[in-house]
Amino acid sequence: AQTVTQSQPEMSVQEAETVTLSCTYDTSESDYYLFWYKQPPSRQMILVIRQEAYKQQNATENRFSVNFQKAAKSFSLKISDSQLGDAAMYFCAHYNNNDMRFGAGTRLTVKP
Amino acid sequence: NAGVTQTPKFRILKIGQSMTLQCTQDMNHNYMYWYRQDPGMGLKLIYYSVGAGITDKGEVPNGYNVSRSTTEDFPLRLELAAPSQTSVYFCATTRTLNNREEKLFFGSGTQLSVL
After folding, report:
1. Dist CA B87 CA B46 (whole Å)
2. How far apart are CA A54 and CA A18, in angstroms?
3. H/E run at residue A14
4. Helix/strand/coil (H/E/C) assignment for every residue in A50-111
């Protein structure tokens, strides 16, 4: 079964600056999907961005972009122009064959 | 359109008690998942289902049981509650994830404490 590792339990960024959250995963599959989810204190799980493994082009969603390195099994999230509302737990997730696995999360603090 | 509804939102159990966490979705999704989230941790997959009558174990199935008699409902059963099962439980659904527009829809969670 696949595993997802987020090596940064906590990260901090100054408002308007850029921050990168790391994620690595282990899978034997070649076709899969990767996701970043945001969880604010409300506990709601909010999809931030997704990446299809068969696509070489990195996904972008407004201020959020990923650096997908398939050979290295790395999937980092870059948040540009950080805003106070970006403060939350961020979870990286790997999906294949009906099985969705999450990393342990990174708590992002945004300083005004 | 209610989406994914979980009940109850909060529950306190005594050790050895049993209970069922309810999850209902009105989106006609085939895939349903149960996760637990321990404090400060990520979500761990307990069980999942790809359709009515079909269930499969995830990472941490011990101590839990599920059933999927209808497309809409995917209850999670705890038979003999233990303190280690204190957690927040999330139900999630999707039609399919093999499509750019698809995503997991999460319920609001059930906070369970076993004392």
Report:
1. 12
2. 27
3. strand A10-14
4. EEECCCCCCCEECCEEEEEECCCCEEEEEECCCCHHHCEEEEEEEEECCEEEECCCEEEEEE
Of A47, A52, A103, the CB nearest to B42: A103
Query: B90 to chain A: which residues are within 8 Å by CB?
Result: 45
pLDDT confidence of residue B99: 62
**Residue given tokens 């439980």 in the structure block:** B89
Residues B45-89: tens digit of each pLDDT: 999 999 999 999 998 999 999 999 999 999 999 999 999 999 999
- Closest chain A C-alpha to B45 CA, distance in angstroms: 7
Characterize A88-102 residue by residue with b for buried, 16 or more Cβ atoms within 10 angstroms of its Cβ, and e for exposed: bbbbbbbbbebbbbb
